[in-house]
């Protein structure tokens, strides 16, 4: 069988020890698992050795054909299509875990889908471009700390597990990769208006060189909060808790 062609920025992992290490990083407390972008099944083969209710989602037709031949155990659990256009609630009635060697081109979009379905996605173990992984896991004060960092860290505990060099992929990418793990925290809902929280975070980081006092001008902040010291800081200097507090104060002033 001919190896499927690279698509959507996909680079196929060929190092079996790293593949096993990625699968072992998935800390299972339930059996529902969705693998995104299985390609030739380098992770799939190890997932199938575990007692899981596994579904795999693949958009590339060559890869789908390859998986059907080499992994007949998947049967009806092989889903062909664009994971970004799918209803993730249909994957399982119960909470589920996500794993994958995520295509570079859509890795950020996958994490925003995770965020959208945070009440269903308990855990994510993903390999992606190192810079994106570092951005997601970074702490406040870091130059790569941004919108995705705050929004995901509001609902997930995040660890950057290990880095992966280009030479273990076919074809080798021009950048380093990294494996990251997200585990759902105990925050069901934020203690503020979540849509307003998201708007403040996005607006703050879109003007990250400015203080929040200037960066948030388009949101027409109420004059009653003008003395807040948080507004003298830049967005990258605020923690998730700081953004929640800021949102709360704006809500009180709006009332």
State the secondary-structure class.
alpha/beta
Provide the residue-averaged pLDDT: 92
Q: Could you name the CATH class of the largest domain?
A: Alpha Beta
Low-confidence stretches are 1-8
Radius of gyration: 20 Å
Elements, N to C (H/E): EHEHEHEEHEHHEEEHHH
User: What is the percentage of strand-forming residues?
Assistant: 15-25%
Write out the strand line-up for the largest beta sheet, numbering strands in chain order: 4-3-2-5-6-9-7
Largest sheet: 7 strands, mixed
- Number of helices, where a helix is a run of at least 4 consecutive DSSP H or I residues: 9
Straight-line N-to-C gap:
65 Å
Architecture per CATH nomenclature, i.e. the level-2 architecture of the largest domain: 3-Layer(aba) Sandwich
CATH-defined topology of the largest domain: Rossmann fold
Count of domain modules:
2
- The helical percent reads 25-40%
Corresponding CATH superfamily of the largest domain: Vaccinia Virus protein VP39
Q: How many runs of DSSP E, i.e. beta strands?
A: 9
Question: Could you characterize the architecture of this molecule?
Answer:
With about 260 residues, the chain is an alpha/beta fold. The chain has helices spanning about 15-25, 45, 60-70, 105-115, 130-135, 145-155, 195-205, 210-215, 240-255; strands at about 10-15, 30-35, 55-60, 80, 95-100, 120-130, 155-165, 170, 175-185. It folds into two domains: about 10-185, Vaccinia Virus protein VP39 (Rossmann fold), CATH 3.40.50; about 195-255, Helicase, Ruva Protein, domain 3, CATH 1.10.8.100. The protein is built from nine helices and nine strands. The strands form two sheets. A seven-stranded mixed sheet has the order 4-3-2-5-6-9-7, sandwiched between helices. A two-stranded antiparallel ribbon has the order 1-8. β5 (about 95-100), α4 (about 105-115) and β6 form a beta-alpha-beta unit. The longest helix is centred in the last third of the chain and has 15 residues, at about 240-255.
